[in-house]
Amino acid sequence: MTVAQLLSKLVSFSVLGGESNLTIIHWIKEYIEAFGVETVLVPNTENTKASLHCRIGPAISGGVILSGHTDVVPVKGQNWNTDPFVLTEKNDGKLYGRGSCDMKGFVACCLSILPLLTKATLKTPIYFAFSYDEEIGCLAAPELIEHIQNHYTEKPRFAIIGEPSLMQPIVGHKGICVYDTYVNGSAGHSSGILKEVSAIHESARLILWLEAKMESLIAAGSLDDRFTPPHSSLHVGIINSGILANVIADKAHFAWDARVLPKDSLENIMSDFQDYCNEREKELQLRYPDFKIITKEQHPPVPALDTSEKASIVALLKEINPNHNLGTVAYAAEAGQFAEAGIESIICGPGSIDQAHRANEFVAKNELKKCVEMLEKLVFINS
Ligand SMILES: [Zn+2]
Fold first, then answer.
1. How far apart are the CA of 201 and the centre of ligand 1, in A?
2. CA 161 to ligand 1 center in whole angstroms
3. 283 Cα: distance to centroid of ligand 1 (angstroms)
4. 247 and 326 assigned to the same domain
5. What is the Å distance from ligand 1's center to 351 Cα?
6. Distance 254 CA to ligand 1 centre (A)
7. Are residues 246 and 148 in the same domain?
8. What is the C-alpha separation between 225 and 381, in angstroms, rounded?
9. Residues 116, 32 within the same domain
10. What's the 103 CA to ligand 1 centre distance in angstroms?
11. Which are the contacts of 380, defined by CB distance < 8 A and separation ≥ 6?
12. CB of 259 within 8 A of CB of 232?
C-alpha cells in the first residue's frame, strides 16, 4: 500500500483518546505481520486497548524506535467541510481527515517502509512503538516503554517521535500535569461568613497562590527563551461552586494545569502548593474541623523533553533529515517519557501542529514524502 492508502485506512478508524483502539491496533498488527515481522501487543488491564511494538533487524543493542499514537481528538462541535474519518484529497496537495497530521501521517510513513525495511540487512534494529490514549495525557507510553525495555534483552538507544513538527527536529518540550482541587468548607447564611469557611473564598486564595507562584518563578529569572512563553505556566481553566449569592458555599472544585520548563521542578511547585494547602487547613480547621483541600492528578505528570544539541540522536537526525534547524514545541508529548526512560529522543514528524485538533485537519502530501525520505535514509545509512 502507498503511504496515502495507508493513511486513508488509518484515518477510517475513528478511535478517540480514551476509547478502545483494538480495531486500529489489530489492523496495524496484521499489516505488519504480513511482512513476516513478529509483533507484541501490550494490553491494558481490561483488555479494551493495546499498544504495539515490534523489532525489525538484528537482536543487538542500539537502534531506533519509531513512535506514534493511534488515538485522535474528537470532532464534535467542529465545522468540517468533509467527513473527518474519510481521508479526502483536494487539488491543493493536501490530505484532509482527523489524525492526518496528528499523528497517523507518521504511522502511515512507518508502515510504508516495511517492504524496504524487511528486505534490508540492518546493522542495528528499527522498532515500531504505537500507543493509545496519548491525547488524554500520554497515558499508555510509560507502560509501552517499560514493556519494550523488558521484552528485548538488547536495549534500543534512540527514539524518533513523529508528532507534527513540519519535519523540524524538536529537542525540547515542556512537562505537563493536570490537576483537580477539591475544597470542602461549611455551608451557612452569607451573614455568617466569619464563622463558616467558604469553599469559594478559599479556592480564590489557592488560585491566586498559583498565579503568584508562576510570577515568582518569572521574577526569580527561571526563563528559557527556547519556549513560548519562556516560563512555566500555572492556569486554572474550570471552577465549579455555589448555589446562591447569600449562601456560603461548602464545596468547590477547580481544574488546572502546570506546564513546566525543563529547568523547573514540578515536584517542587507541587510541594510548595501542598505546604500552602496544609497551612490553610491548619488555620481553618480551628473554625471548621472538617475543612479540607484535596488535589488529585488527572494523569501522571508527563516529563519535559530537553535533549542536548550535542546528543547522538541529534547527529543521527542531521544525517537523515535535511532540516537541521533544532526547535522546541509548546505541546507535551511522549518524547519526554522515552527520554526519562533513558532513550535519547527527538520529535520529528510530518504536518504542522497548527492543523492538529482543528476542523479540516490536513497533512500536505509533500510532508509525507519528506518523512518517508527521512525513514528511507535511516534504513539506508543503517544497512
Ligand atoms: Zn499527537
1. 38
2. 9
3. 44
4. no
5. 11
6. 26
7. no
8. 34
9. yes
10. 5
11. none
12. yes
Rounded distance between C-alpha atoms, residue 343 and residue 352, angstroms: 25
Q: Do both 241 and 374 map to the same domain?
A: no
Residue 34 CB contacts under 8 Å (≥ 6 apart), including other chains: none
Ligand 1 geometric centre to CA of 8 (Å): 17
Q: Which domain holds residue 150?
A: 3-172+304-381
Is 40 in the same domain as 103? yes
Ligand 1 centre from 173 Cα, in Å?
A: 13
CA–CA distance, 54 with 338 (Å, rounded to integer): 16
Tell me the mean pLDDT per 10 residues along the chain, length 383: 97 97 98 98 97 98 98 96 97 97 97 97 98 96 98 97 98 96 98 97 98 98 95 97 98 97 96 98 97 97 96 98 95 95 98 94 98 98 94
Joined grid coordinates for residue 225: 527563551
Interval between CA 164 and ligand 1 midpoint (Å): 7
Last residue of a domain, one of 272, 297, 322: 297
CB 256 within 8 A of CB 162: no
Please tell me the total count of domains within the chain.
Answer: 2
| 374: preceding bond cis by omega (within 30 degrees) | no
Q: Distances from the Cα of 168 to the Cαs of 53, 130, 163, 329, 347, in angstroms? A: 25, 21, 10, 10, 8
Cell numbers at 255, concatenated: 481544574
HSE-up (13 A, CA, CB side) for residue 374: 28
199, 334: one domain: no
User: Residue 39 phi/psi, 5° resolution?
Assistant: -120, 160
What is d(CA 321, CA 313) in angstroms, rounded to the nearest whole number?
A: 12
Residues 16 and 112 in one domain: yes
Q: What is the pLDDT of residue 330?
A: 83
- Which domain CATH number covers 147? 3.40.630.10
**How far does residue 202's CA lie from ligand 1's centre (Å)?**
37
